[in-house]
Specification:
- The chain has about 400 residues and is of the alpha/beta class.
- The protein folds into three domains: about 210 residues, HUPs (Rossmann fold); about 80 residues, Tyrosyl-Transfer RNA Synthetase (Orthogonal Bundle); about 70 residues, RNA-binding S4 domain (Structural Genomics Hypothetical 15.5 Kd Protein In mrcA-pckA Intergenic Region, Chain A), CATH 3.10.290.
- The protein is built from 19 helices and 13 strands.
- It is globular.
């Protein structure tokens, strides 16, 4: 626990801004009347958002809720961002149909290397609190955890949808999974949250914060959840599933990934992932339905808009030029990695040591899926392929390598 200083600062009570904050991309508010009353009061509110570093990159699905936190910041409220370096070890069971594997301390440390920098692409870190929940959760002793556990009954936990479904199938639910919402709830106690925001899949955990705050004699936080973004494979966008567009992706990679989404997702991505006004998106949607607008052009607009948000307008224009050069004219990006070889080398070794694939296992998987090709010569079918001459290679859809023989 630590001392909270509530600094006085101008708070916007502009009704239009408040309504925009509590409506666009919002799935559910609990309790809405209470939240609106707080926002209209002019009091400086503590708005909490937490992410577990289950991966090293933040994707644009998570960016939706980060941008919502920024909206509260822009109203003048105190943004409180929590990195769940302790809760990541427990594993959030939200929306999981099987037990999440434990993360090691080394994995979490590795994932955290550029985390703050990524968060800072969206919220104003100079005006935000940035905490690691190991600061207070690692200090809880058994007596304190026992007291915390009194907040919930086993029946309440077992009635959670994904727990209930797993139990009905005869699958295991670990006791540590029951601990997760308690720990996230205790985060709200530690930072004295007035509001907690999160994705809709977090609703149980967010409501747990109210229960735990009440247990410790604090006022219950109000809750705002945002809509969930569909990933590149049609499921919820999730680091665990790898169907993501990351905010740290290179401009060319981000642009290319957006161009690969299904046409029917264009307006959803515009609404959830960009700042484009809702009325303009509605007009665009109508133009798509009436065939006044080509989906490819609309998708390029989306890709350029999104890329500009994270990399700037000039990088977005360059990414667009690169995309159409590569994918409509069969070229190679100007910024493709270029390496020089003297002797024959395995292609797998070249790609791994130049960070174009994460491991030889990934290389073999890509080869088996036909996802690696030598441009102009066809797909690589042999995982033991050797490179002895100059060539150009495409790895997946958005990675390229130029090999030149010395």
């Amino acid at each position: 626990m630590f001392e909270i200083f509530r600094k006085t600062a101008p708070i916007s009570t502009d009704e239009g801004k408040i309504q925009s904050t509590i409506s666009r991309n919002v799935e559910e508010i609990f309790v809405k009347d209470s939240l609106i009353k707080k926002l209209r009061s002019g009091a400086k509110l503590r708005v909490k958002l937490g992410f577990d570093p289950t991966g090293s990159k933040i994707h644009i699905g998570r960016a939706i809720i980060l941008r919502k936190l920024r909206e509260f910041q822009d109203l003048g409220h105190q943004a409180v961002f929590i990195v769940g370096d302790f809760t990541a070890r427990i594993g959030d069971p939200s929306d999981k149909l099987e037990k999440r594997p434990l993360l090691s301390g080394e994995q979490i440390t590795e994932n955290l290397k550029n985390y703050k920098e990524q968060v800072g692409k969206i919220i104003n870190l100079a005006k935000a609190e940035f905490h690691y929940n190991s600061r207070w959760l690692s200090k809880l002793n058994l007596a304190e955890i026992t007291d915390l556990a009194e907040s919930f009954s086993v029946r309440q936990m077992a009635e959670r949808r994904n727990f209930r479904e797993r139990l009905e199938k005869g699958e295991e639910v670990s006791l540590r999974e029951f601990l997760y919402p308690l720990m996230q709830g205790y985060d709200s106690v530690a930072v004295k949250a007035d509001i907690e925001i999160g994705g809709f899949d977090q609703l149980f955990n967010l409501k747990a914060g109210r229960v735990v705050e009440r247990h410790f004699g604090l006022s219950e936080q109000d809750i705002l959840t945002t809509k969930m973004l569909v990933g590149t494979d049609g499921r919820k966008m999730s680091t665990s599933w790898g169907n993501v567009i990351n905010i740290s992706d290179s401009p060319s990679e981000m642009f290319g990934k957006v161009m690969s989404i299904k046409d029917e997702l264009i307006t959803e991505y515009l609404l959830l992932c960009t700042e484009m006004p809702a009325d303009k998106i509605k007009t665009l949607e109508e133009d798509l339905k009436s065939n006044k607008l080509n989906p490819k052009d609309a998708k390029a607009m989306l890709a350029q808009n999104l890329t500009a948000m994270y990399h700037g307008p000039s990088a977005a224009v360059s990414a667009k030029d690169t995309f159409f050069k590569v994918f409509t004219k069969g070229g190679v990006p100007d910024d493709a990695l270029r390496i020089f070889i003297k002797n024959k080398e395995f292609l797998s070794d070249l790609l791994v040591k130049n960070n174009l694939v994460g491991s030889k296992t990934e290389f073999r998987r890509l080869v088996s899926n036909g996802a690696i090709e030598e441009i102009g010569k066809g797909k690589i079918l042999d995982p033991e392929c050797e490179v002895s001459e100059s060539g150009r290679f495409r790895i997946g859809k958005h990675r390229f390598l130029i090999v030149e023989k010395n």
